[in-house]
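Bench log. Compound arrived from synthesis this morning; before running ITC I wanted a structural hypothesis for how S-adenosylmethionine sits in the protein. Inputs:
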Amino acid sequence: MRVFLASIPLQDTSVVIVGEGDAAHAKARLFSGSAARLSWFAGPDVDDGEGRIGRWPEAADLAGARLVFIATGHADVRDRAIEAARAAGAQVNVVDQPGLSDFHTPALIDRDGVVVGVATGGVAPVLARDVRSAIEAVLPAGLDRLARLAEGLRQTVIDTLPDFTARRRFWETAFRGPARDLAVEGRDAEARRQMLRLLNVSQAGEGVVHLVGAGPGDPELLTLKALRALQDADVIVHDRLVPKAVLDRARRDARLIYVGKSRGDHSVPQDEIADLLIAEARQGHRVVRLKGGDPFVFGRGGEEAEALRAAGVSVVVVPGITAALGCAASAGIPLTHRGQSQAVTFVTATTRDEGVSPDWQALAAPNHTLAIYMGVSDAAEVQGRLIAGGRSASTPVAVVENGTRPEQRVLTGRLDELAELVREGEVQSPALLIVGETADWASASAAGVSVQEAAA
Ligand SMILES: C[S@@+](CC[C@H](N)C(=O)[O-])C[C@H]1O[C@@H](n2cnc3c(N)ncnc32)[C@H](O)[C@@H]1O
C-alpha cells in the first residue's frame, strides 16, 4: 500500500482555503455543506462576501485549523501559508503540488453518512475520478438514508445486543436484507420497522422479492437498480424472455430457477410461481423475480405483487425498458413524431387470457402508433380489424423480431401486407408489431428488410 486513506470527522473542525480561481472554488463547494467551519481567504483583489475574505491570512487566522488547502499562484503567499499552517498544527494540501502537501485529496463520493474516497497518491487524479464514476454508478442513491437510519438505531442496538459479535451479525444482516432495500427506496418508516423486527428476533430477517424488469434483451439496457438487485440476489426466478447475456450479469452463486412460459405452454402455472416466490422469501432469501421488459407491462407483475403482499412478503418493483421502447429505438422508429404521430398505444392482440378484445375502432385512428405485443400469430387478425376499423391499408408497419439482441431482424411493409410479412419472413417470438406512420422510418435504417426481401 503506497497511501493510507484516513477519514477525519469534520464536526467542530476548522477548514481554511487560501487562494482564488477554479481550484479554490471547487474546495469551497466541497466543504460548504459540510459539518466543518470554513474560512476562505481569496486575496486583496477580491471583495469580502459570498463566503470569501478579501485578503491573505495572517498566522493568527490559521490558529486551530485542521486542514488548510492552498490554491494560489503567488509563491510568497503560498510559502507563508504553508509555514503558518504547519506551525498551527494543521495538515496542508497545496493543490496540484503533491510534493509540497501533507495529504492529497482523494476523488470523493459524498452520500452524507457514507463517503467513498479513491486515491492514487496524487499521481493519477483522472484515473481516480474514473474509478469514482464507476463506483458511483453502482452505489444506490439512497445509501445516506441507510446510514442515517443506522445512526438513529445505534444506541438501541448496543443496548439490545451487548455482545459485539451478535451486533456485528445483526448489522451484516440488516445492511444486506430487506431493511436496506426499503431504506434506499426512501421507505424510511418501513425500513426502521424492519430493522427493529430484525433486532427483536436477533436472527436472519425475512426475505424480500424484487420484481425486476430485465429489459428487451440487451444487457446494457438493464437499469442500474436492476443490475444491483441481480448482483445481490440469492435466488433468481426468471422467464423465457430473459436471455443468457442478462443472467450472466447476476451474482455467480445465485440459484437460478427457470419458470419460463411460451404461448400455450404454461410450464409453471402463475399461482405456483407466486407460491415459489413466497416460500423462497420466507426462508430469508433475497429473491429476484426477473421478467422480460417491464414487469408491469404485459408481464403479470401486478398479479405477483398482489400475491406477495397478501402473503406479507415485502416487494420492491424495479422497472425495465419495455419491448416497445427497446425495439423502436433499435429499429430507428420514433414512437411519436411531430406531424406523423401524436399518440402511442401499447396493446396486445392476444385476448385468450384477458377475454376482452381491444377496441379496434379506436386503435384504427390515424397519426397514432400501435406497439402490438404477442401479435405474431394474430397478425392477420390485426391487419383485418385495423383496416375494417378505418386505418389506411397503406399505413407503414414494421415487425421487430428479437429487438435489441444480436439476432435482431426488422421487416417493413404496409398494413395490408402485415400477415404476409410475418408468414413469409417466418417471424418467431419474441417479436413486436409496430403500426403507424413512423414505422416507415425503419426502412431507412440499415437493418430494415422489406416485405419483398423477407419473402425472398
Ligand atoms: C408476455 S409479453 C412481455 C412484455 C414485457 N413485459 C415487456 O415489457 O416488454 C411478451 C411479448 O413482448 C414482446 N417482446 C418482448 N421482448 C421482445 C424483444 N426483445 N423483441 C421483440 N418483441 C419483444 C413480444 O411481443 C412478446 O411476445
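What the model suggests: Residues 216-217, 241, 291-294, 297-299, 322-323, 327, 373-374, 400, 402-405, 429-432 surround S-adenosylmethionine (CB under 6 Å). The chain has four domains: 14-105, 140-205, 207-321, 324-455.
ITC booked for Thursday regardless.
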